[in-house]
Amino acid sequence: MTTIENISDSAPEKMLRILDCFTLQGGQLSVGDISKLTGIPRSTAHRWVGILRDTGLLDQDNSRDVYRLGLRLIHLGNNALWSMDISREARHVLEALSRSAGARSHLCVFDGNQMIFVTRTIGGRAGRFNSTTVMESSPCYCTSVGKAVLAYQPQETVERIISQGLHPYTPHTITDPDRLREELALTRKRGYSINNGEMEMHERCIGAPVRNAAGRVIAGLSLTDKTRKMTDDKIPGFAQTVIKHADLLSVQLGYRHS
Amino acid sequence: MTTIENISDSAPEKMLRILDCFTLQGGQLSVGDISKLTGIPRSTAHRWVGILRDTGLLDQDNSRDVYRLGLRLIHLGNNALWSMDISREARHVLEALSRSAGARSHLCVFDGNQMIFVTRTIGGRAGRFNSTTVMESSPCYCTSVGKAVLAYQPQETVERIISQGLHPYTPHTITDPDRLREELALTRKRGYSINNGEMEMHERCIGAPVRNAAGRVIAGLSLTDKTRKMTDDKIPGFAQTVIKHADLLSVQLGYRHS
DNA sequence: ACAGTTGTCTCATTTTTTGGGACGAGTTTT
DNA sequence: AAAACTCGTCCCAAAAAATGAGACAACTGT
């Protein structure tokens, strides 16, 4: 009927459409901004923003009529990471990988846009809070963990990442969309990814995908070392080690078959 | 009308009621579990869970009929932290504080339940992804940052934290609700909090509240050192330094007046 | 084999959302 | 300084979505 799509969103979809505005546009938005960005009429947007403020999903600068993402989102995000078995299982696998290969290892979860570094250190006593969760994000197109994950995502996800821009960190960063697509195809073919100083000069990483119980690739496990230490001839051997540990982690997350 | 409260939630409220089940109960829940925990009828819960799965707020283990918090929440939480000016402003203030006091400093955001450690390291070039966000959570009843924030939260928040249990980390951890209430009153009175080896033995911290543009205390800034170095006679001086920097940060966040 | 539980689907009823329009307070333009 | 404009806020009848009891099948464990 209307000029553009007339899809009637469910409430959560519409809610996320509003919250995503902040993600894209960053920082702070007014009711008017939200109305424009989402196409939601002013009066409706106004009511929504009020509800989202009351529920803690948005925070309001009282001085101006401006809103930001709320603290409750941080809480939920933190809990989502917590409730993932990945945090629980990760440590031992990371230690085993580092020990057997003699290099640093990373585990990162793909959140739909970036790679989020996950690790957990268990303290002395048992208990919910006796641990710490660490989150650190980095781009997915120029890290080994990112490329390992991206290789197994639907095409539309890859295209979205590309459309957001491939900013160069080093001269080795892949900035050409086609080269990235080739790289992902190669990664899919051999089962592991290589990062050749694309984010940090003189650092080479090998990454492999980690699957959850649903069979989806949700994370990447990697091995990192100086380029001069991780020579070409060693890569195949290291790759098998990384894949082995990534598969082990997948199984611990509930993934079956292979 | 009904026996219990007949409050009709808005859609986001109900959604959060479902998501919060996972926070409280942890791990994974089935449709039936959610129905029981929230009081929402099975068929309604079923539809909701389906929507939340489709929007990425929940993840489904395909093997069993079990759900977990979704990756999208991690994404949103990460973005919420990003969009906070606090990440941008924090670094300089932290460095200044550490330098002027000669001890380690922390900045933690209160997410409603825990204290989330926030820091950011800016790399060489400008750009969105050229930084890293680190999140690490710790309890708020036994850290200086936590007590500094909790002292300025509504009573119901304090009581909720207490009702969740005050687990001892060290012999010095405050586990008596009344002692915690007194401690918070004292903190409010003098304007800064002290953590006396309550989470880590032989570590002493001084914390002060940080306010956002809305005037709400949303974070805590702290100075940490070994107990033997942070002696009683030095505390008042250090406290003023911490408060000064916390206030500076508050102003940078848009807080006015004092 | 059986009783109980659980996931899933349908549909008439109820409830909420919706958004055009109105009003007032600021802000910019003329 | 007045006019034109923008923006936040509120109201209400029309429209759309959520609701939840019930039915059915699949599964569980005794």
Please provide a written account of the structure.
The structure is a homodimer of 258-residue chains. Chain A is of the alpha+beta class and 258 residues long. Chain A folds into two domains: 4-70, Orthogonal Bundle (Arc Repressor Mutant, subunit A); 84-252, GAF domain (Beta-Lactamase, 2-Layer Sandwich). Helices cover 44% and strands 22% of the residues of chain A. Chain A is built from nine helices and eight strands. The first copy, chain A, has helices at 11-25, 31-38, 42-54, 71-83, 85-101, 144-150, 155-163, 177-190, 235-252, and strands spanning 58-61, 66-69, 104-110, 114-122, 131-139, 193-196, 203-211, 217-226. Chain A has a six-stranded antiparallel β-sheet with strand order 5-4-3-8-7-6. A two-stranded antiparallel sheet of chain A has the order 1-2. In chain A, α2 (31-38) packs across α3 (42-54) and α5 (85-101) packs antiparallel against α9. The longest helix of chain A has 18 residues, at 235-252. The radius of gyration of chain A is 21 Å and the shape is elongated. The termini of chain A are far apart. The relative contact order of chain A is 0.11. Chain B binds a DNA duplex (30 and 30 nucleotides) through α3. Chains A, B: One of its GO terms (biological process) is negative regulation of DNA-templated transcription. Chains A, B: Residues 72-255 form the IclR-ED domain. Chains A, B: This is IclR family transcriptional regulator.
